[in-house]
From TrEMBL:
InterPro entries: Aldolase_TIM, TIM_sf, TrioseP_Isoase_bac/euk, Triosephosphate_isomerase, Triosephosphate_isomerase_AS. This is Triose-phosphate isomerase. The lineage of its organism: Eukaryota, Viridiplantae, Streptophyta, Embryophyta, Tracheophyta. Pathway: Carbohydrate biosynthesis. Keywords: Isomerase. It is an enzyme of class 5 (isomerase).
Length: 315
């Protein structure tokens, strides 16, 4: 079991949003391994360990060929529709996605609201997989209002988005609770899009993302979503995103394994749109995107998916 956590030293050089002033090398506590089995992952750690990591050593990677990609995983783009849509608007969106031309070398996932998953599953091209936006911590039963991982699989979902900042900061889910959900969903063979990311005040205090436990690294995509960039139109600069992605990948390499570091997709989310996705995609540790608002427009979402072509740059 490993836990996702990263703290930056308050004196870190991690660059903040334009209004932030931050300085000097980042120190991290990070993904912590333990020998706990899946069954024991129900007792999750909630504390942050004192592991430190400096990302600066790897942030100046030299070019490794014609494809600017540090990880070996396929480009991944998820559309998080959040609590948006009606039967009619979703019909239109699905029709736009079905007729869009999408680059083949991208995994594409959309996350409709629960109540429209069946409609989407029955009308959307198989080229695009479906994610739920949440799942319960265990087997279903007397849990009013919840949806179980088994039910998601039954209805054709392949993925679930967990730990999104809106569930943390609006609804109040904590790391322990999210960790339980992640463990259970992974145990049911759902892929997990595990969201991490800091509030503006956390970034200003030197923290970049939160902590929760996961039982294995198979089937996880990490979405780094600085909360100050979500739905605000204030996208992280490619350099800001790259800096954290490098740190996460380095942490995985040192604390889980180089193989996991290479194969785990680390995607960026927060005000990604059709106009900024190509520049972000050029960064070698950005393996794709989790997109909110812009995923509600089929043409824009297709452009973001196709920004994978920006990764193919001259060495
Ligand atoms: P946004 O949302 O693209 O609208 O900023 C991203 C997200 O919340 O996943």
């Amino acid at each position: 079991m490993a836990m996702i956590s990263t703290y930056l030293n308050p004196s870190s050089q991690l660059s903040g949003p334009k209004s932030c002033t931050a300085a000097s090398p980042p120190l991290f506590s990070g993904l912590r391994r333990s020998s706990a089995s899946l069954s024991t992952t129900q007792s999750f750690f909630h504390s942050v360990n004192s592991h430190t990591l400096r990302s600066s050593s790897s942030s100046n990677r030299t070019s490794r060929g014609i494809v600017a990609m540090a990880g070996s995983g396929k480009f991944f783009v998820g559309g998080n529709w959040k609590c948006n849509g009606t039967k009619d608007s979703i019909k239109q969106l699905v029709s736009d996605l079905n007729s869009a031309t999408l680059e083949p070398d991208v995994d594409v996932v959309v996350g409709p609201p629960f109540v429209y998953i069946d409609q989407v599953k029955n009308s959307l091209t198989d080229r695009i997989e479906i994610a739920a936006q949440n799942s319960w911590i265990g087997k279903g039963g007397a849990f009013t209002g919840e949806i179980s991982a088994e039910q998601l699989k039954d209805i054709g979902c392949k993925w679930v988005i967990l730990g999104h900042s809106e569930r943390r900061h609006v609804i109040g889910e904590d790391d322990q609770f999210i960790g339980k959900k992640a463990a259970y969903a992974l145990g049911q063979d759902l892929g997990v899009i595990a969201c991490i990311g800091e509030l503006l005040e956390e970034r200003e205090a030197g923290k970049t993302f939160d902590v929760y436990a996961v039982p294995s690294w198979d089937n996880i995509v990490i979405a780094y979503e600085p909360v100050w960039a979500i739905g605000t139109g204030k996208v992280a600069s490619p350099e800001q995103a790259q800096e954290v992605h490098v740190a996460v990948r380095d942490w995985l390499a040192k604390n889980v394994s180089p193989e996991v570091a290479s194969k785990t997709r680390i995607i960026y989310g927060g005000s990604v749109n059709a106009g900024n996705s190509a520049d972000l995609a050029k960064k070698e540790d950005i393996d794709g995107f989790l997109v909110g608002g812009a995923s509600l427009k089929g043409a824009d979402f297709a452009t973001i998916i196709n920004s994978v072509t920006a990764k193919k740059v001259a060495a």
